[in-house]
Design brief:
The protein has a single domain, classed as Glycoside hydrolase/deacetylase (TIM Barrel). Helices cover about 40% and strands about 10% of the residues. It has nine helices and eight strands. Strands 2, 3, 4, 6, 7 and 8 form a six-stranded parallel beta sheet that branches. β6, α7 and β7 form a beta-alpha-beta unit. It starts with a helix and ends with a helix.
Length: about 260
């Protein structure tokens, strides 16, 4: 089996795994056994980037943010970054047409297979963040492999964009555990971006169900969505129209939480 084929299989599994379903089988991208790993995944040594340092250095535990309390009529649509690059292009085209900006929390294996994805997101005026290297059930990992998942994606972001991104988001869990906050801080992230509204689009429940779920968003909400799902593309224009009708502007997470 070629390296290209292996990467394709890994990305397919990551795209189908729910960010907010820690009880489900995480698939090949996560730990292969029920017991959490006790040593770092054999991912190889991250390449040292030639640009700026990957982080400001180890920090204390990160702070979890799941919504803004500023009261501004804004929301943040945040997308799990994985899946077919053509679907990503469609999402970016739609948000551009509606004058919206989004935040993509990228999976490292996706960035490695599709390095143009980072450029596409940044060129559209959107922002990137870290969503682990392989999207495992991260809360079950011990400290060392948990850190390795965060670090390796961080280094890939720096390699491709010169920045580690402003946020880390844990995989397969709506809220970060204390250990995830500690390891994110060690990797240089001061903020972990969680969310208060789950679109459930990863289940592919149909446009009506996704639209209804996102309708729960209020001023200050952070909404979890996913690239790589055609159903998300189909309903996104309606979601953006609904938000505009309610006077809510989709902005990047950094702008929402400033």
């Amino acid at each position: 089996m070629t390296r290209r084929r292996v990467l394709g299989l890994t990305l397919s599994a990551a795209a189908l795994t729910a960010c907010s379903a820690p009880g489900q089988n995480p698939g090949p991208a996560a730990s292969a056994s029920a017991a959490p790993p006790t040593t770092p995944p054999s991912a190889g040594t991250p390449t040292s980037p030639s640009g700026p340092p990957p982080s400001p250095g180890p920090l204390g535990p990160a702070t979890e943010l799941s919504r803004s309390t500023a009261g501004r009529p804004q929301v943040a649509l945040t997308f799990h970054g994985a899946g077919d690059l053509q679907v990503t292009r469609q999402v970016l085209d739609i948000v551009h047409q509606h004058g919206a900006r989004i935040t993509v929390l990228a999976v490292g294996t996706w960035l490695a297979a599709h390095p143009d994805a980072a450029r596409m997101v940044r060129d559209g005026g959107h922002e990137l963040g870290n969503h682990t290297w392989s999207h495992p059930a991260l809360s079950g990992y011990t400290a060392e492999p948990m850190y390795a998942e965060i670090q390796r994606c961080r280094d890939k972001l720096v390699e491709l964009t010169g920045s580690p991104g402003g946020f880390f988001r844990q995989s397969q869990g709506q809220h970060a555990t204390e250990q995830e906050l500690v390891e994110a801080g060690k990797a240089g992230y001061a903020k972990v971006l969680s969310y208060d509204v789950d679109s459930l689009d990863w289940k592919d429940p149909g446009p009506t169900a996704i639209r209804s779920a996102v309708a729960k968003a209020r001023a200050g909400s952070v909404v979890s969505m996913h690239l790589g799902h055609p159903g998300t593309v189909a309903v996104l224009p309606s979601i953006l129209t609904d938000l505009a009708g309610r006077g809510l502007t989709p902005v990047t997470a950094s702008e929402l939480l400033a």
